[in-house]
Amino acid sequence: MGVSLTKGANVSLSRTDPNLSKILIGLGWDARSTTGADFDLDASLFMTLADGKVPSDNYFIFYNQLLSPCRSVEHTGDNRTGDGDGDDEAIKVDLSLVPQNITRLVVAVTIHDAEGRNQNFGQVLGAFMRIVNQENDAEIARFDLSEDYSTETAMVFGEVYRHNSEWKFKAVGQGYNGGLYALCSQHGVNIS
Amino acid sequence: MAISLQKGGNVNLSTEAPSMKTMIIGLGWNARASDGAAFDLDASAFLLQESGKVISDAGFIFYNQKTSACGGVVHQGDNTTGEGDGDDEVVKVVPSKLPADIQKVAFAVTIHEAEARRQNFGMVSNAYIRIVDEANGQEIARYDLSEDASVETAMTFGELYRHNGEWKFKAIGQGFQGGLGPLANNYGVSI
To answer: What is the ipTM of this complex?
Structure first.
């Protein structure tokens, strides 16, 4: 299944069926074979209002908060090593259940304890993030984290957003200095 | 001006040195200043398929098997102390000679007799890997390992690999506790 979206491009998800918009955001990587601390990549998602901030901390979906209040976004759990083929972490989204005031879902990937472990995406083998339209199993976008984001430790993968009553996905693919903490601050999430 | 790579970083050699035909992969380290057995670092190269494994043990190039079957990777010989400025061990690579099914060449360094001499990379200073264009002596990229030295005794310094039809180099700096055995096994070589 090829990548059809390049960085910066966007696509309409609800074009074929405005009512059914189930997507899966998948994160995968190879478990470490060399000596050293495991590579622990984490997928997360910020459900934001028009101002780009979450309505409350409950709208930050990550390994310690797996289900959104509206139950539209579900994180399938933390994978701390990358063991297993295919997607190692996944976030499922049912767009038809997302509350009206939520206009953007910002998807990020970070490396746990990147600074302490002195790690970046380039050191990980086969790291990728992708989004799949579950309605037709089409892979909408995939970014190769190990190759193209090699010196980064945190990244905004993309945004699922409302536009003129449609849901669209925009491939962002930007590294984020400051990691998860900075991402949270930017989106109005308080983390201690 | 050579590109200085950090661990995990990669560089496009086809872009940075489009006319480079023969690459000199140079490995260097400082000879031991303190008392004790000399640091004898050995460079090696693994010619890898897409799977990350060698086709056969002939794909493991080191001081006792210096030339690959295709002639594209040639080890220039063993330096047992690190004496001398500049590169202490060199592997010459002519990418155009590598067969199409060789997707990557991994460059590793191991410490000879590490266990007996009780040595590890943390004790070696100024270890680096660099790529030089043989035609004009120009250094294209370098990865200095000194910051990342550790308790390992066998390490993949970096990797030359194909990506979208071009040659790239990635700074790896990751090792194996247990030495050459586990490292070679990782690439499918039985020693």
So the answer is: 0.86
Within 8 A of B104 by CB-CB distance, chain A residues are none
Chain A: give the shortest CA distance to residue B20, in Å: 22
Residue B191 lies in a domain: no
Instruction: Give the domain CATH number at B129.
Output: 2.60.60.30
Q: How many angstroms from the chain centroid is the CA of residue A10?
A: 15
Give every CB contact of residue B32 below 8 A, 6+ residues apart in sequence. B38, B39, B81, B82
Name all domains of chain A by residue range, CATH numbers in brackets.
10-186 (2.60.60.30)
Which chain A positions have a beta carbon within 8 Å of B170's beta carbon?
A: 122, 150
Chain A nearest-CA distance from B84, in A, is: 31
Q: Report CB contact under 8 Å: A147, B10.
A: yes
Q: State pLDDT tens for residues B58-109.
A: 999 999 999 999 999 999 988 877 777 789 999 999 999 999 999 999 999 9
Measure B172 CA to nearest chain A CA, in Å: 7
Q: What is the pTM of this model?
A: 0.91
Residues of A in contact with B121 (CB under 8 A): none
Residue B134, in any domain of the structure? yes
Per the structure, the complete domain to which residue B90 belongs is given by: 3-186
Does the residue B68 lie in any domain?
yes
